[in-house]
């Protein structure tokens, strides 16, 4: 009996260390960044069993076999369609400013989508304006409506959008709605999904979350895009979820969410439709045929208010590190000014270095973040970066008019980036994200006015006072900073 227990004991000990060694080797073989690897190794060695389970469920970018196979198939056919589209001289713009040229060339090379010309562009700075505009466009839709959101929260004007969408479906408009399972969990617990499906809307729960799927796919991989497409001609994109701020997270104690959306008309809707069709097919296995290359809806406007817009997408199945490379290219292109707004400031080492380097070489760098954040972990982790940024001369503003959720970058008043990407590792290397890049001085002026308004409602962080903050705060910041690669 003693021999049996001894053998069993040694087998358990051997299996325990073999599992830890195996996961350690897997982390090292993946060749991730040193901070990322060190954070996971520390978790695994301090809390072995919990750490191993956490790594196997969240440590690697794994979409799942079925979705991965679909993603590979999609882009084989999509690349052919994009090559055919490049023959249309009225679609892509070959002329870019010297500020935007590196970014546009990078994206054309890596994702096959260049800057699209001939678009109308409008910034929507309030949630009310955005929701009312979406309702109006839905009411005028004739053929198809495609929507994807991370969060759909019922209540207020969000219900008006739902009613308008159901009315459109009843009159024969083909409506597709893709919502993230985790972000829209409250929506899927209401009667709205049933009502919409009964009205004829294709409602799909993206990346379902359940315990049974934990080892089949990474559970914290999220569909984070916010997009509305109407009749292959009208498009919306930006930071706003489908929520009415008056009915959203009122008990969080951070104030109303402040967002920024863009409404566009023109061929950019076709380019964004390529991204949406990929998301839809990855999730459902059903193919959405792209519009004909020479269809009237993709012929651009011909007037002085035309805008060239580039759509940049990321996520499993898309070019790896696409958003990260795009942001680095954008920051290094800055020569005079660089203004950034983000709710979550937990950048990679490369991004932090690029931002600080821009300031050191004389660029006026300003970053606007919310003073109060809905994420305790991110709030403390982001502050760990303040000292290095302030030392480099970066001006950090803390927005006091609510939770600033807008994600925007303006370079030299010429190149504008607006979308769903936070400056954190989750957006940079994990989630399905989308960003618009606009190479236009007039759009730059519009974005500058919005950012100036944010700054007017913010408090500038004093570098001297920050250096004198309590030591316990510094300890907490460094503790959360260590886990920043996982946030």
Topology:
Layout (H helix, E strand, L loop, with lengths): L1 H28 L4 H13 L1 H11 L6 H22 L14 H11 L4 E9 L2 H13 L4 E6 L7 H14 L3 E7 L4 H4 L3 H8 L2 E5 L20 E4 L3 E5 L18 E2 L2 E5 L2 H17 L22 E8 L7 H12 L3 E5 L3 E2 L2 H12 L3 E7 L5 H8 L2 H6 L3 E5 L3 E2 L3 E4 L3 E5 L3 E2 H5 L3 E7 L1 H16 L1 E3 L2 H5 L3 H12 L5
Parallel strand pairs: 2-3, 3-4, 7-14, 10-12, 11-17, 12-13
Antiparallel strand pairs: 1-8, 1-9, 2-5, 5-6, 6-8, 9-18, 10-15, 13-19, 15-16, 16-18
Helix pairs in contact: 1-2, 2-3, 4-10, 5-11, 6-7, 7-9, 11-12, 13-18
Family: Belongs to the phospholipase D family. Cardiolipin synthase subfamily. ClsA sub-subfamily.
Subcellular location: Cell membrane
GO biological process, one term: cardiolipin biosynthetic process
Can you describe what's shown?
- By secondary structure, the protein is an alpha/beta fold.
- It folds into 3 domains: about 1-60; about 65-90 and about 115-305, Endonuclease, Chain A, CATH 3.30.870.10; about 320-485, Endonuclease, Chain A (2-Layer Sandwich), CATH 3.30.870.10.
- It is built from 18 helices and 19 strands.
- Helix 6 packs parallel to helix 7 (about 155-170), helix 7 (about 155-170) runs parallel beside helix 9 (about 190-200) and helix 13 packs across helix 18 (about 470-480).
- The longest helix has 28 residues, at about 1-30.
- The protein is globular.
- It starts with a helix and ends in a 5-residue tail after the last helix.
């Amino acid at each position: 009996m003693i021999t049996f227990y001894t053998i069993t004991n040694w087998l358990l000990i051997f299996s325990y260390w073999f599992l830890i060694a195996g996961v350690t080797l897997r982390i090292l073989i993946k060749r991730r960044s040193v901070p990322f690897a060190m954070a996971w190794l520390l978790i695994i060695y301090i809390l072995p069993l919990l750490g191993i389970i956490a790594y196997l469920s969240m440590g690697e970018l794994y979409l799942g076999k079925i979705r991965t196979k679909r993603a590979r198939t999609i882009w084989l056919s999509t690349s052919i369609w994009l090559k055919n589209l490049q023959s249309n001289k009225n679609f892509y713009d070959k002329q870019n400013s010297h500020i935007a040229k590196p970014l546009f060339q990078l994206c054309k090379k890596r994702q096959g989508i260049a800057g699209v010309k001939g678009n109308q562009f409008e910034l929507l700075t309030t949630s009310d304006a955005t929701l009312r505009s979406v309702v109006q466009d839905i009411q005028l839709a004739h053929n198809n409506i495609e929507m994807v959101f991370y969060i759909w929260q019922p209540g207020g004007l969000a219900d008006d959008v739902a009613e308008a969408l159901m009315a459109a479906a009843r009159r024969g408009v083909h409506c597709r709605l893709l919502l993230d399972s985790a972000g829209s969990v409250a929506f899927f617990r209401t009667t709205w999904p049933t009502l919409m499906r009964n009205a004829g809307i294709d409602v799909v729960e993206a990346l379902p979350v359940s315990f049974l799927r934990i080892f089949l796919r990474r559970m914290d991989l999220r569909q984070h895009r916010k997009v509305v497409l109407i009749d292959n001609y009208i498009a919306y994109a930006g930071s706003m979820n489908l929520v009415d701020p008056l009915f959203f997270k009122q008990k969080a104690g951070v104030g109303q969410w402040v967002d920024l959306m863009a409404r566009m008309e023109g061929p950019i809707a076709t380019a964004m439709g390529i991204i949406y069709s990929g998301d839809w097919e990855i999730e459902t296995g059903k193919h959405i045929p792209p519009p004909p290359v020479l269809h009237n809806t993709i012929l651009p406007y011909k007037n002085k208010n035309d805008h060239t817009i580039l759509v940049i997408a990321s996520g499993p199945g898309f070019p790896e590190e696409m958003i990260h490379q795009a942001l680095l290219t954008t920051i290094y292109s800055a020569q005079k000014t660089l203004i950034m707004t983000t709710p979550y400031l937990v950048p990679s080492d490369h991004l932090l270095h690029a931002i600080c380097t821009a300031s050191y070489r004389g660029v006026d760098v300003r970053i606007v973040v919310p003073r109060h954040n809905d994420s305790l972990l991110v709030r403390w982790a982001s502050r760990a970066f303040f000292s290095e940024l302030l030392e480099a001369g970066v001006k950090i503003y803390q927005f006091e008019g609510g939770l600033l959720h807008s994600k925007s970058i303006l370079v030299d008043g010429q190149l504008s980036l607006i979308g769903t990407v936070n400056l954190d590792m989750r957006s940079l290397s994990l989630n399905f994200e989308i960003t618009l890049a606009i190479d236009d001085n007039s759009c730059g002026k519009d974005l500058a006015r919005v950012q100036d308004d944010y700054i007017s409602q913010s408090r500038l962080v004093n570098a001297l006072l920050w250096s004198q903050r309590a030591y316990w705060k510094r300890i907490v910041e460094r503790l959360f900073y260590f886990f920043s690669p996982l946030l």
